[in-house]
Amino acid sequence: KSKVKSFKASTILLLTFESCSFLNTSIKNLAVLSSFNFPRLFIASAVNSLALIDSVNRMSVIKNALAMDSHQEIIRTTALRRLSDFKNTKYEKEAIDILKKYSVRGNHPSVRITAISTLSIFADKEPSIKDFIFGMVNTPEFFVRMVIYNVLGDIGDQEVLNYLKLAEKKELDGRMLQAIWDAIARLERKLKG
Question: What are phi and psi of 105, to 5 degrees?
Answer without folding.
Answer: -60, 150
